Write the structure tokens for this entry.
Amino acid sequence: MKIGIIGAGASGLMAAVCASRLGALVTIFEKNDKPGKKLLSTGNGRCNYTNLLMNSDCYNASSRAFVEEALSIFDENDAVGFFKDIGMLSKNKNGYMYPLSEQANTVLDVLAMECRYNNVNIKKNIKIDNISQKGSGFIVKYDDKKDYFDKIIIACGGMAAPKTGSDGGGYEFARQFGHTIVKPVPALVQLRCSDKFFKDLSGVRCESRVSFYINDRCVGSEQGEVQFTDYGLSGIPVFQYSGRLARALQSGEKCKAVIDFMPESTKDEVVLMLNKRHKASQDKTAMELMIGLFNWNINKVLLKRAGISADKKASSLNSRDISGIAYYIKEFDAQITADNGFDRAQVTSGGVDISEVSASTMESTLCRGVYFAGEILDVDGRCGGYNLQWAWTSGYIAGRAAAND
């Protein structure tokens, strides 16, 4: 059995290991000068490779059943066991799993080593010109050459982080075999906002709860460290919903974020707290009344949005002023105008329509012998190792299924 794999990223390498272990002759075609370029940048180079808090709710997909079936075949515990078996020890940080070395290159090294000892041929600096059917197999054309394969696994990623080689080229291969592509949008990405006050908040980080709205309907909220930039919002709470908001924005829908700077307190409790500070601050300014609550720049912007001059005497503030400050502490809204693009995105939302793929084999239901793995599929996960788990899961399934058939 000869199997050709397009892409030497996380899912392609996993597929290669699994197929070669079953006796298949595997060739990987990689456009970069070395495999796993994107893998090396994950987790800021530390590679959070899976998460022990795993279920299908951690993924965005048109079919939750598809993800559930795939994870039932190869889940987070299987991933930890797989890497342990090939020599990589792990470190558990509240369910977030890292290599013990906390180096992404360790993950790549053990996968590359396993490929080497199973005689996987990795061809680098290769640009695929065309993939076509020939009888029951496939011809891969590249650099004025062509190779025949019994099976093809397309694992060349999406469009996020194009500098690592993810340029969306795999979608055209999928289309050639009749597949529908759900429009790709950036996910796990920063969001751009139109409000002018973000320049005052640039560089500030704050533990908050952020609620996200599409056409004035709340679609979810997330608590964690929010990072303000001169153009908008960043941080894990923002990343978790960025793909969904990016898709809504491309459809012309209105999106906004509402930040709660004191999520552990009700608005009434915030008003009570501010009133107590007000009574104790009669000889101070409005800004001095705020000192000790939040970052200085957040305090300044809160007062500005409440229409209060920072040097106004606290003694002259009335109940409406106090209520206004409390309102923006609890409901600081920001109008979202755009995502920050594929260049800054960690992952792609969209891709090959999973209704045209078997969850138990990752084989195309439209063209026998064609398999998919990884980010090219319309499945994307939350921050925290979920997208790499999808790479391991889909790569494992595709590699074994292709070799076993």
About this structure: The chain has a mean pLDDT of 96. The chain has two domains: 2-185+350-404, 190-340. The first strand starts at residue 2 and ends at 6.
